[in-house]
Specification:
2 copies of one chain form a homodimer.
Chain A (H helix, E strand, L loop, with lengths): L17 H16 L6 H8 L13 H24 L5 H19 L3 H4 L2 H4 L4 H22 L3 H20 L2 H4 L7 H18 L12
The structure holds a DNA duplex (18 and 18 nucleotides).
DNA sequence: GTCTATAGAGCGATAGAC
DNA sequence: GTCTATCGCTCTATAGAC
């Protein structure tokens, strides 16, 4: 999103609302280069401001990254909500949320790894923590209906599955030797359904770890 | 592994076999800092040689990284082989390989994403390609017994699951809100068993995508 | 084969002009 | 609030001494 007049103004570049524009550009860049290559300077260039400008709005790189991650978490929660909207069956809801999660990670390269990153935890971004919990509840709510006390275990398994689909797709592994042209969303969703079926169907012992002696 | 005399020699540092020592140190560093932060200079420092020394043995950073990845792939294939050694049931073998994969990724931060990385594909390291196939066959062989024509789909699902467990653990997500003190290996293995059960048990339609109209 | 030294680049962050 | 300019750091890679 750029101000009216186009992205490339000559000379001074006055911006109405730089902070959100930086966050938006940061999100786009995260999707293209990944969290490791995330650079304040490059985001500034992308928006068309000097490399010093972001530091008027964000204390340092990590604070900025946390703000971008918080924005991503908001979008992720929304995407997951939309994906399960109108679904009654908890297995369908959990699998739908997993599919949306995988697709989001594949596209934006942000998932629970970044949202709950230990590096960003020091920044203590309130938005990030709250939205992270929102993402988790999209998974936990249907999981509780399915597995009761074993909900956390089931969520862990489904999250791992969805996260794996997202990251492998982002790294070009799934597209390399693609066996279907089915999108990531559908593949992850179907795999999650199988996992859920196997975890609950073959007995809850598949989900809950054996009690320790 | 360092030459006798200890890691810290004064003055000139003569090394018997620098190349393998660099690969080994690179592997250790990969596990600590991750592939993105992988740096030739830091590996050289870790071994105790100048930052120029590695370039006598490897053309550039990517070639070096490919060699490290090839070494990792060898270890990974061995770990997976050992994990399934003596197991007859193909489901147990596939799940065991998945557990070993997850644990390896958690510890070394190298998985199929790095081994089949598009960035390293340009280097065309023969070892890397061959060992990557060896890793895949540990998963594909039992999968074929289980799913026949749907083997590739099942492997994709299991790989995504194991990769998710490995990366999330490496990023500190699983340890953060740990729900068990069960190790990653066992968790990923059990989740894989559930997935396999659900994929084959509830009908093969869970594995193979619907045929297109 | 390893060293020292260096060029050249990118990034994080700050200082001071406007 | 944004700019220009700059410092200090790390990294990749090369040149040349030994």
């Amino acid at each position: 999103m750029l101000v009216s007049g186009g992205p490339r103004l000559r000379g001074r570049y006055h911006h109405g609302d730089l902070a959100p524009a930086l966050v938006e550009a940061g999100l786009a860049q995260l999707g293209e280069r990944g969290p490791a290559a995330f650079s304040v300077a490059e985001v500034a260039r992308r928006v068309g401001v000097s490399t010093a400008a972001p530091y008027r709005h964000f204390a340092d790189r990590d604070t900025f990254l946390a703000a971008v991650a918080a924005r991503a978490a908001t979008l992720l929660a929304a995407a997951m909500t939309e994906a399960v909207d109108g679904l009654a069956d908890p297995a369908e809801r959990l699998a739908g949320a997993a599919g949306a999660y995988a697709a989001f990670v594949a596209e934006h390269r942000v998932g629970l790894d970044v949202i709950f990153s230990p590096g960003l935890r020091a920044v203590r971004d309130t938005d990030l923590a709250a939205t992270g919990r929102a993402v988790m509840s999209r998974l936990l709510d249907p999981s509780r209906e399915l597995a009761g006390d074993g909900a956390l275990h089931l969520v862990e398994q489904v999250v791992a599955l969805a996260h794996g689909y997202g990251t492998l797709d982002a790294d070009g592994f799934l597209t390399a030797d693609r066996v279907t042209d089915e999108p990531t969303t559908a593949r992850a969703r179907r795999a999650a359904l199988a996992l859920i079926a196997g975890a609950s169907g073959a007995g809850a012992r598949a989900v809950v770890p054996p009690s320790r002696p």
